[in-house]
Specification:
- The complex is a heterodimer of chains A (450) and B (209).
- Chain A is 52% helix and 8% strand.
- The longest helix of chain A is centred in the middle third of the chain and has 26 residues.
- Helix content of chain B is 55%, strand content 11%.
- Chain B is built from nine helices and five strands, in the order H-H-H-H-E-H-E-H-E-H-E-H-E-H.
- Chain B has a five-stranded parallel beta sheet with strand order 2-1-3-4-5, sandwiched between helices.
- The longest helix of chain B has 20 residues.
- Classes of the chains: A alpha/beta (450), B alpha/beta (209).
- Chains A and B meet through helix 13 and helix 18 of A and helix 4 and helix 8 of B.
Chain lengths: 450, 209
Amino acid sequence: MFTEDWDKLTPDQRYEERMKAWFATEAGIPFVSDEVRDAWRERVQMLRDVIELRKPKRVPVLPMGGFFAAQYSGLTARELYYDYPKAQDAYLKVNADFDFDGAFSTFAGVFPGEMYDILDLKLVSWPGHGTGDDAPFQYNEKEWMKDDEYDLLLRDPSDYWQRVYLPRIFGALEPWSMLAPFTDIWEPPINVPTFFPFSLPPMQQMLEKLVKAGEAAGRWIMGPGAVDGQVAAAYGRPGFFGGAAKAPYDILGDTLRGTRGIMLDKFRRPEKVLEACERLVPLAIDQGRRGCDFTKVPIVFMPLHKGADGFLSDADFHKFYWPTLKAVIKGLIDEGLVVWLFAEGGYDTRLQAIAESDIPRGRTVWLFDATDMKEVKRHLGGFQCFAGNVPGGLLIAGTPADVDDYVKRLIADVAGDGGYLLAPGVVTDEAKPECVRAMIEAGKRYGAQI
Amino acid sequence: MKDELTNAVVELREDDALAIVDRLLGAGADPIGILDDSKRAMEVIGEKFACGEAFIPELIMAGEIMQEISAKLRPHLANSPGSGALGVVVLGTVEGDIHDIGKDIVATMLDIAGFEVVDLGVDVKVQRFIEVAREQNAGIIAMSCLLTNAIDAMKRTVAATRGAGLDGTRIMIGGAPVTQQIVAYTGADGFGKDAVEAVELAKTWLGGA
């Protein structure tokens, strides 16, 4: 890990080590000039300041990258998925033209069309594969996990994922279901049958496709996937998500049982839902930590979905959603990490739960969308960093003057004590460029005066 | 006795509710009465939703129970008199968007409130809204979306409808990104922030409020 005595370090010491390691990544970035390097340092420092609830030099203005890059460069969304040089140029252009304090990243929602074509991904439709050429990716809501499979999942989640879930969501991986559990492999000759399916033609075809998918992944990583690194070098704009994790209830509800499935399960088999959420806690912590170990950026991105206002009663939020989400947050903080929670939708009714929680102070960032930011400050100010919430609709339908007004008021209302950063409340797919520019300019103008 | 079924549905006791329906049908009870009791329960859940005592999972679970009850009643009901009396609503998620959960809840609630709902599904092309609205002589076109990307599809659909001679047809929109500003931007006639508001708006427009 980051030090030899990692196991003996306290969470705060681990945090210090991870922050040091983040700053030290500058040694590997080929900055185009000393000024750009200094800008990068200053921006990472501003992020650190707001995370630790201090007043930054000025309020940082961060993007939530999305399809806007395509729109702005006159590309179709489809080209973003399939034409890597064009996609790469589009993201570089957005980063050249919009002076955010962090990278406008491919992270939110752009992925390699070629790779998922090879794998025949069924979970999601994307431009050129199920949605129109100009529509962003969308989930195909379905019970990818059946309602009678909870016990199978609970017995061994990894085995469930490999032999049941993967063959369902990837057409090309259907043969995987022929394999026996890998835990069968303890010694010869008991494990001979484990290897037999690899002699069968469908399995061999699957392996060939996996090799092709791996190569396609490599092409994407070297292309659009490399944009964040280039942006850091050229514009001094740091990437700010080092890894990703999800709330256990969302893991279960988003892509296994589906929105409808999880909502019905809550009534029909509540104990199984709770048990499954518990089972997923250590897996979520491990996933978030591994991402950050690799990138050295100590911030774990957690998009929150099914705990928003209206999606659960308050009692059910406290029963089904919050305990295991909190366990993941605290587990990641124990590892020295910062957890960035993207609270999509409204969170007005959840603020009190966050405020009253035993999450260590100054170790999370809460990005809000349709939540009352004055209430956010009242509940979280001085306890956790918060961010948001320029509405997506305002960037589409408003004027630059509307955006300027909104940002001015927002900063006056909530930024005064520090611990705050300005960002759109949603991932930016559609927007008027002049409104995005107005958001950045207003953020810098009013955010310098706090 | 009469409230037994209504209460079971309101409390989302699925097994109890279905057992009561079986028992009532077995005893020769009037299926229309059973349907009315169930619909009353749905109205109560809608009211609880409006005042923040019930949430989306409760609406979905109630809709599920309602469907199961309807399936049991169907063989006993030649047709359902009285339904659709308030007018026709042509409903769908707009082009480019495949989200259906919000739309489905609105469809269920409009149906229970007494509208005839023609559900066009998801990713509905502009022309399809217009054709069906014309065929069905719709009082309302209701468009749903979840993605901000779909707002322009709404705007296009509204514009095309305005030019299609559907002067008597009002347009309501709804979905997570929709605000009064989006109503103005798309040129729609109004929006509901949730299913309950959508039903209220529909009643205001077509009567029954």
